């Protein structure tokens, strides 16, 4: 079953998204009828766009049938869709900001009049590629991350961390998971299952609580507050956790370099997580060992914690 977090990418054709963004050229329900003018004709510019999209769809289908080879990006020298490129440029500017931006701030960053920018923001918001908070400030939305999660199979951290995950599984005979941080919280991108008769299942691409999971706590302890405050405030209120107790635990995690949970998210499950640091000595991932409560020893001086900290430190030394 396809995880919900990436179902958008798995079930939606990219060019249909383009069409939905910029002009709604196809009928929303059937994607087969171009919008015509009062005389029943396709306006010239719109018609060019329709023909272009249908041509690409034909090529896409041929690629799927093995009739075409995929060209490199350097070979794509023909005309593109300027409005699409503009929309993607806006997304890049917003994603690079450390906090949500107002339309005025986006306008300044993109050097675009607010009247023109507003149309792009509206489309990107409606399709889930942007979020808008109560103060009308914009940040990257869920669908943007859905596409990113689909591409995670090619991320360096996943490939570089896999040998570490396998060693941990062999040394501990427990399920081991790799997670990264997104705007919505921690997401699992890879796991290695233990060889035990009973296993804890982890779904790649699944979104989990930040304050209730070992990996999530690790991110909250080591990431800048500007990247995590919106998640912290939401989940502290949701789970009724006092801010003072939370901050005390974060300080403990920063000192000990690991975090634990015991049945806090799922009854009968225990876990311990450690940070993985990158070149700039900032956290880029978390590795979590997950097992059955009562069987997985997650005390500070246990072999599980010692081995996990050792392997995460070794991986961080490679990445730094």
Structural description of this entry:
With 320 residues, the protein is α+β, with helices and mostly antiparallel strands. It has a 5-stranded antiparallel β-sheet, sandwiched between helices. The chain has helices at 7-11, 14-21, 44-64, 82-96, 103-110, 114-126, 142-150, 156-172, 214-222, 225-239, 243-256, 303-319, and strands spanning 130-132, 138-140, 175-182, 185-192, 259-262, 269-277, 283-292. The protein folds into 2 domains: 4-70 and 81-147, Arc Repressor Mutant, subunit A; 155-319, 2-Layer Sandwich (Beta-Lactamase).
- The beta-strand count equals 7
Given helix and strand content, the structural type is alpha+beta
Low-confidence stretches: 1-73
Taken from the alpha-carbon principal axes, the silhouette is elongated
CATH topology of the largest domain: Beta-Lactamase
Portion of residues in beta strands equals: 5-15%
The CATH class of the largest domain is identified as Alpha Beta
Summarize the amount of helix as a percent range.
40-55%
Main sheet attributes: strand count, strand direction, barrel closure: 5 strands, antiparallel
Q: What is the C-alpha radius of gyration, as a whole number of Å?
A: 23 Å
Question: Distance between termini?
Answer: 36 Å
Q: Average pLDDT, to the nearest integer?
A: 77
Give the number of helices. 12
Query: CATH-wise, what's the superfamily of the largest domain?
Result: GAF domain
